[in-house]
Design brief:
Rossmann fold, 5-stranded parallel beta sheet, NAD, 2 domains, alpha/beta, 333 residues, 7-stranded parallel beta sheet
């Protein structure tokens, strides 16, 4: 796939529904001409087929995957690529342009903030504190004052890649012990100083047995789908771990997660992603007292962040350097 350009085309097409994304792109790259392409507009196909560089929402890109003859590089605005992959047909010639995901430290830091905030809120039991305030009640009972610190915790990260390592860095700053699940254990010189223990996917039960929190950051791929299904979470029972899912809901069936909570293998779950989204009102997760739910917001594609990431990748593109976060269509990430 091409990752370089001898010269830029007359414009960069912006094919996105993210509010203010074109404005943010123009702010950080005032000398570049950006052409908004509105989904469903009459000139949509005409503008996209002529563009060499495109900034696009992943779902919109997927629908045009085989109809971008001039494209050399497409920068996606999301980290998740399922909506691109569902249009990828291995029987057809592979697209010749490079696709890059929006990820790197932009999402890693944001998702790390979510992790830290969620752990602190859970360990300090802050929700009752807010409720007490409404009743003018000064109450320091239970975990409100007698709680675990992050430095007391061993935290396992399922998917210790770019984002996972950024999360580990924040956790290590607060002196947590961090375990990371990986495809391949890195060589000594490439090991992250923020990961204390690496475990291969085949050693998942060992990680689950030794962690107080298990944080899923894995993408949705053939290899990761259902990795926690069945009774896998029984290995969390020893420490009654808290399960946090900020990766993808496909790692576990909802019924298996509910069972793990009901059996006491998990003491709680903090969930931002789900097997079905939006989470249906009929889901029993809504009413389980040990579950906290957020609507897939742990790592949002903020327009100013997408613009800065595109700017950094554009510098690489124009200087024939490898781009960051290139999507491998065959691997699925």
């Amino acid at each position: 796939m091409a990752t370089t350009a001898s010269k830029m085309s007359s414009y960069v097409a912006v094919y996105s529904t993210i509010v203010n994304i074109t404005k943010c792109l123009k702010t950080v790259l005032p000398n570049i001409q950006f052409q908004e392409v509105s989904p469903g507009s009459g000139d949509e196909d005409n503008l996209l087929t002529k563009a060499e560089i495109i900034v696009a929402d992943n779902d919109l890109l997927g629908m045009h995957l085989y109809n971008l003859p001039a494209a050399k590089w497409v920068q996606g605005t999301w980290a998740g690529v399922e909506t691109v992959l569902q249009h990828y047909d291995v029987s057809k010639p592979k697209p010749t342009f490079t696709i890059t995901r929006f990820s790197n430290y932009f999402l890693g830091c944001m998702m790390g903030e979510y992790v830290i905030a969620s752990i602190v809120n859970h360990e300090r039991n802050l929700m009752p504190v807010y409720e007490n305030q409404q009743c003018s009640l000064w109450n320091r009972d239970g975990k409100i004052s007698n709680h675990r610190s992050i430095s007391d915790l061993t935290i396992g990260i399922l998917g210790a890649g770019t984002i996972g390592t950024d999360i580990a860095k924040l956790l290590k700053t607060l002196r947590a012990r961090v375990w990371g699940l990986v495809h391949t254990v890195p060589k000594d010189e490439k090991r992250s100083p923020y990961v204390d223990e690496y475990r291969l996917n085949s050693d998942l039960p060992d990680l689950l047995q030794n962690c107080d929190y298990v944080i899923n950051v894995l993408p949705s791929t053939v290899d990761t789908a259902g990795v926690l299904n069945g009774d896998m979470l029984k290995h969390c029972a020893k420490r009654q771990a808290v399960f946090m899912n900020i990766g993808r809901g496909t790692v576990i069936k909802e019924e298996d997660l509910v069972a793990a909570l009901n059996k006491g293998w998990l003491s709680a779950a903090i969930l931002d992603v789900f097997e079905t989204e939006p989470l249906p009102p009929s889901s029993s997760l809504w009413t389980m007292p040990q579950v906290k739910i957020t609507p897939h917001v742990s790592g949002c594609s903020r327009p100013q962040d997408v613009a800065m990431f595109f700017k950094e990748n554009l510098v690489r593109f124009q200087s024939s350097q490898p781009l960051e976060c290139v999507l491998d269509l065959d691997k699925g990430y």
